[in-house]
Amino acid sequence: MNTRQPTPGPIPRQARNRITLLAIAVLFLGTFVVAGVLRFSGWRPAGTRNHGTLLAPPGDLRRVSLATVEGAVYPWAPIERRWRLLVAPAADCGVACVKLARDLDTVWQLSGRDADRVDILWAGPVPADAVRGVAFREVRVDPALRAGLPGLDDGASDGVAGPPVYVVDPNGFVILRYAAGFDPGHLRQDLGRLLRLK
Predict the structure, then answer these.
(1) Phi and psi dihedrals of 153, rounded to 5?
(2) 173-178 and 165-168: which strand pairing?
(3) DSSP string covering 155-198, please?
(4) Which of 6, 96, 127, 148 has its CA 20 to 30 A from that of 102?
(5) C-alpha closest to that of 55 among 160, 197, 190, 183
(6) What is the mean pLDDT of each run of 10 residues along the chain (198 residues)?
């Protein structure tokens, strides 16, 4: 009497198709589940994080009429896709503003071919011993301008002397704030990402 178990035959074609379909569905839906968990846990890839503080809601300077210290109108002109780095220092800023102007000029120069799409707006005169690169636009100090800059007077609470720097988008919205003493390399990285947006 033969008690040997019969060897299983090949899996039927219909069963193989079902297993394949199930595996594809698990892979497809599994990526959504993992992405959702990462998204709602607050994780973001290092390359997509801003170094500056994202302002929510952003400051709105669209209705602020800027004029240069010479009296010419400085238009927002959104169609030009021009980004602005904006500084509104106190009158007694001193050495901190000299260093800041040099740092901003370096950031501007490192923007390379996109540098012509960036203006550095300085409310009031740039310090005499500071770099006055071609990107600097000295604009008149305006109470409406200062009112549209969130956290402008929080410099003392940041623990470092000097004014914050703001990134203003082409439409006139203030979207990022960099506290006094920030790393210029961080501003350069964030600005580079923004300049790649068309």
Answers:
(1) -95, 20
(2) antiparallel
(3) HHHHTSSS--EEEE-TTSEEEEEE-TT--HHHHHHHHHHHHT--
(4) 148
(5) 190
(6) 59 76 80 71 58 86 89 89 91 84 90 89 84 82 87 62 89 92 89 80
What is the rounded distance in angstroms from the CA atom of residue 52 to the CA atom of residue 78?
22
- Coil vs helix vs strand at 68: strand
Residue 139's nearest CA partner among 72, 59, 84 is 72
* Amino acid letter, residue 144: A
Query: Which token pair is 15?
Result: 């069963």
| HSE-CB of 15 using CA atoms within 13 angstroms | 4
Q: Which amino acid is at 117?
A: R
Please tell me the number of Cα atoms within 13 Å of 169 on its side-chain side: 15
Write out the H or E segment, with its range, that includes residue 60: strand 53-60
Q: For residues 149 and 59, is the Cβ–Cβ distance under 8 A?
A: yes
The H or E element containing residue 74 is: strand 73-74
The CB-side HSE value for 129 (13 A sphere, CA atoms) comes to 7
